[in-house]
Structure prediction request, 654 residues.
Amino acid sequence: MHIPDGYLSPETCAVAYAVAVPVLAVAAKKVGASVKTRNLPTLAMLACVSFLIMMFNIPIPGGTSAHAVGAAAIAIIMGPWAAVIAVSVALLFQALVFGDGGVLALGANAVNMAILMPFVSLAVYRLVAAGSALDSRRRLVAAALAGYAGINAAGLATGFELGIQPMLFHTADGTPLYSPYTLAQAIPAMALAHLTLAGFAEAILTVALFAYLAKTDPTLLGSRPTRPARAGLTPARLAWLTVGVLALASPIGLLAPGTAFGEDAPDELDLASLGLQAVPDGLARFFGLWRHALLPDYGLPDGSHAVLAYWLSAAVGIALVGGAVYLLGRLIARLSPAPQATPAA
Amino acid sequence: MSAPTASEIAPPGWLVASASDLAPMIPSGRRRRASFQRRTLGTASDALRFALDADERGERLGIVSLDARAKVVALLAALVGVALVRTPSALLVANAAVLAVAVLARLSLGAFVRRAWLAVPVFTGVLVLPATLSIVTPGRVVVPLWTASGIAHGLTQQGLTSAALIVLRVAASLGLVVLVTSTTPWHRLLAGLRGVGLPVIVVQLIGMTYRYLFLLTGALTDMLVARTARTIGLQHDAQARRFVGASVGTLLTRAHLLADEVNQAMIARGFTGRVRVLEASKPAGRDLITVAVVVAFTAALVVGDRLVN
Prediction:
């Protein structure tokens, strides 16, 4: 998970720092405002705890053990901004004192483990725990899922950062300059490791820590999670947020080489490998029957402004599908009989 | 009554015996995996010992007298240079230069090679092995291994070059970081970070974290030793997991209380939230020369690499 220097291009590292530094600045301000002069010792202690959590070997069912990051647990107990600072400082220590994770790659590591992970974990935790009692089983399930989802989000981001390297940075003869594995190889590899070992380790740590504090020191947990589900993060808003993020990320599709399985145009077919002499008649006849697409291949007709056209396609698609589903919903609501008021006895 | 002799007031032998002299806690005829507590204990105490060693080593060496800011600037320039070059030969030159400076700095070569070139670069080497095959990195097959559908598969020139690039790049980058961190005591490294523009509050946070890391690591090792001493026979995984939760929870509660106490102590001593630092001295001529030499060497390496490539 800790990316060393040499795996990422300097350009990727610069972008990651550009993302991480402003978030860290906001985090420092937010935490400073909530704990006032206490911020310095509190943050220092949290960073220590975060560092020590990363040293723990967590026993996993099956006889093996793995390390956890602890960002999910700190985010649930101390809030996401405190987790951002604590994990970032712990990562800096690991890079400088122990050579674990790179110095140029520190920005990327911070984005994955200190920024993405606490926020994803907390969102999952709040969504699942919503309004349940502090000592309820649902809280424990929420804590476990938060850890599991958080570390997997971080692993996915790491896989993405590594996977775009060979596509973007290679020599003229195709030699990858940095991490050599493509998205199709890096993401499944990271997913496999995180859906199994690392995911369980993080879930176990988060739930064990939560269960212990709920029993022994509920005041430490009490300031945050006892309040009911936050109005800010309802399932509907989360759905909209997800749609927004997916729409923004849609131009990533431009990076992918080749075409999707079963979607080749007749001239893209590798006829020899299919044992064919020519494009089948039916395919040739019906291909291109509809020639009036507004945004052919999710782009403008002249092929310019590919990224903008992808976003435009996403917006149009969301509006059309959303509108159709909304109208269908209205129609069903109108056709179904209104519930009868039960007569008073 | 006569005065106690030295042998009477000396602590008993079992108390001062080192841990390795004690009988193993878990009697067993065959070798078995160390318990998760012992492994965690090992990691924690190794980390502490290593950090302290670095501080002592840094103080002993001549290279330490260089200004820390100069070292940080030179490190960053060299790291960017190593990230920019595109041929294995340029990276070999970079690694040779790092080794030469390590020799000049009179670092223990065995320890340096172990830290910089053994762990992470070897791991990277194993990790990129599949990427040398034509099924991962397509290109000119130089070592054919098998044939599928009439096409030869094996190690490709592109794959081998790529593997060499990443391993050498990782080795050179880590070598540079180890070179600087093992010749610079921590407090000077912090001063160096402040000198290159890191906000004072962040530097102080890092400094305080470093200080309390030792205290809390001590607390953690105490907990683990106490637990190990009370564990007889095998421990169930479920118990072990509860113990991890309890130890981290205790650590967190303790850290919370400690933060309050430290805060009160700081306020009692006049801390208002504003951090004042003594102005660092100006960098001397030889610091500037060091930076200039490193930057010029790095620039020459990058430009030469581009011209050859």
